[in-house]
Amino acid sequence: MMSNDNLNKAAEILKSGGLVAIPTETVYGLAANALDKEAVVKIFIAKDRPFFDPLILHTNSIEKVRTFVEEIPETALLLASKFWPGPLTLLLPKKQIIPDIVTSGLTNVAIRIPNHELTLELLSELDFPLAAPSANPFGYVSPTSAAHVEAQLADKVDMILDGGECNVGIESTIVGFDGDDVIVHRLGGLEIESIEETIGAKVIMSINHSSDPKAPGQLKSHYAPLKKLIVSDNVANVLKENKNIGVISFTKNYNLENTAHSQILSPKGDLAEAAHNLFGAIRNLDKENVDFIVAEIFPNSLLGMAINDRLARAAG
Ligand code: TXA
Ligand code: MG
Fold it and tell me: Judging by beta carbons within 10 Å of its beta carbon (0-12, 13-18, 19+), is residue 45 exposed, middle or buried?
């Protein structure tokens, strides 16, 4: 028995092939037993996600990871030891036991150990890994609270395990390996600078901004709100020329009459706090009566890189 009834209920649902929205430190995931093809199909249907877009496997120990992958290269092990549990996803050669539907037929499986107390306890109770994409309809901004999941997927999941607001608030950084090289496929909650410091080398960026389905996960329209969003290096000017806009800024209060609604992500200028607030801010403005949303360009280092990436994708 686990420490609370909700955890026991979540485990029962997952064991019987159901869907549970789970909290992680990055965003909420829409989880199913990764070894049960029929359960995994339900994820794609609930999200309206194309089958060519593979899922991330979640588990709670490196020992378990070894049972799902053919090998863990030395550099991968170095990163895993340092940053797991945490916002880092590794692409590793999958074993047969992982169904092809999870990886969309690719030979690598994406895998991570999330850093959230409830979900780690849940995973430790299960004898299978969880496949979990972000718990949002395909193409929309990822959920960083149980309420976000509830708003869009309430009738599509068997249960939402409420673990509070996601600390990091932006999806995991995805990296793959090619010989000694570390290839970054998605910017995310673990900073590139931390990876480079750990491996003692530069990473190779392979972040695809096209909408080529062969480059899974990097679809251009990802993270798009329903309202038009633009990114500008001169927000003040955009505000002068338009009425009724929503503004996303880092620290600045534009305080102009035309700013119908404003979301300041971190008044004290902390990028981690800004990342934590980003998706909630987009959701808030999406609900307001604004004609469009304008966002500042963030400082392009540390988590600012991932924030700029998500804003660019939201802008389409
Ligand atoms: O932080 C996260 O990573 C969250 C939480 C729930 O863990 N999950 C998440 O999943 O963001 P999702 O499905 O929304 O995004 C995962 C991305 C997808 O864009 C997918 O294409 C890519 O990872 N991906 C998954 N498996 C892959 C693989 N085998 N090769 C290349 N890309 C892969
Ligand atoms: Mg997603």
Answer: exposed
> Would you state the structure tokens that stand for residue 255, as one six-digit string?
């305080």
Q: For the chain, list the strands marked E by DSSP.
A: 20-22, 29-33, 56-58, 88-93, 108-112, 130-131, 159-160, 173-178, 181-186, 204-205, 229-232, 245-249, 259-264, 292-296
Residue with CA at minimum distance from ligand 1 atom 31 = 216
Instruction: Identify the band that residue 316 occupies on the pLDDT scale cut at 50, 70 and 90.
Output: confident
**Distance between terminal CA atoms of the chain?**
46
Angstrom distance (rounded) from CA 189 to CA 192: 9
CA distance 159 to 110: 24
What is the four-CA torsion angle of 57, 113, 31, 97, rounded to 10 degrees?
Answer: 30
Give the pLDDT mean for 232-248: 92
How many Cα atoms occupy the beta-carbon half-sphere of 141 within 13 Å? Answer: 30
Task: Please indicate whether residue 109, judged by its CB atom, sits closer than 6 Å to ligand 1.
Answer: yes
Coil/strand/helix, residue 229: strand
C-alpha 91 – ligand 1 centre gap (Å): 10
Residue range 110-142, pLDDT digits in tens: 999 999 999 999 999 999 999 999 999 999 999
Are residues 274 and 288 in contact, defined by beta-carbon separation less than 8 angstroms?
no
Query: With the CA atoms of 109, 25, 156 and 219 taken in that order, what torsion angle do they form, in degrees rounded to the nearest 10?
Result: -50
Does 129 sit in the ligand 1 pocket, CB within 6 Å? no
Place of tokens 């102009």: 256
DSSP codes of every residue in 71-92: ---HHHHHHHHHH-SSSEEEEE
